[in-house]
User: What shape does this take?
Amino acid sequence: MERSKILVWDLPTRIAHWLLAASFIGAFATGDSERLRDVHVVLGYTMLGLVAFRLVWGFAGSRYARFGSFAFGPRAVLEYLKSLFTRAPRHYVGHNPAGSWAIYALLALSVLAGATGYATYSNLGGDWMEELHGGLANALLAVVIIHVLGVIASSILHRENLVRAMLSGYKSGDPADGIRGRRLLAGTALALGVAAFWIIAPGSLLMPGGGADQAAGHHSAHQDDD
Ligand code: HEM
Ligand code: HEM
Assistant: This one.
């Protein structure tokens, strides 16, 4: 089989991934800070937006970005993990079965952390909601650590740098397995969309008064319940 450089990850998938990773790190680091609450909330909303985009892209994206290409059952996960202890670890051009389960967990936990964050911010639920939000953020951190360890392990086992591939889009493989276009237009639209959100969000209706703790002042933003 001829092996050459093939494109595997389209641009929107890569942009969404690295913005999601950066937003998570930023949101996690600023969760405890009252002073940085606005930054925290903007990054949390960014994660929600990126996951929403990723869900759409799971149907509209290119071959390896589509959920159909990494919808694996428990048996496939077990067989993949078992194959790692043999001389011929099973190789996948796109996401492997074990990695794909981590991916679904990351997407689901991001939505739950974001939703409970929003509820905490809107003073819905009270203390238990805040506790739940913190707990979900920690659960997400745990899965992120597993995810990164899995990426490192499978990069070593398959002698394939997955981080570099998620940055450049390229892997080495059979030319017939590559995707054709990098989806430049959708990628640019996504990047501009996030940039515009970061500019517009602070001070918008999404962030009334700039924080959940308004004990010191009168909250005067006018909001209609429609
Ligand atoms: C900063 C550390 C991180 C590194 C080095 C990293 C690396 C990677 C790599 C290499 C892949 C591709 C895996 C493969 O080839 O199958 C991937 C996929 C993925 N990662 Fe991460 N990741 C990191 C953090 C995160 C975080 C914080 C999240 C979410 C909160 C996340 C969510 C995802 C998702 C959803 C995918 C699937 C990509 C797609 O198809 O859209 N990652 N990650
Ligand atoms: C999905 C990404 C998010 C992550 C990883 C995250 C993480 C965290 C963490 C670790 C804390 C500290 C919890 C504690 O000390 O028990 C926190 C607190 C908080 N988060 Fe988030 N958060 C996210 C999204 C959001 C969103 C979208 C909002 C609002 C719209 C939000 C609003 C808050 C508020 C108001 C607090 C402070 C609770 C308090 O101490 O009064 N978060 N977050």
Notes: Residues 127-157 form the longest helix (31 residues). The beta strands are 4-7, 170-173. Residues 13, 16-17, 20-21, 24, 54, 65, 95, 99, 103, 106-107, 110, 144, 147-148, 151, 162-163, 166 surround protoporphyrin IX containing FE (ligand 1) (CB under 6 Å).
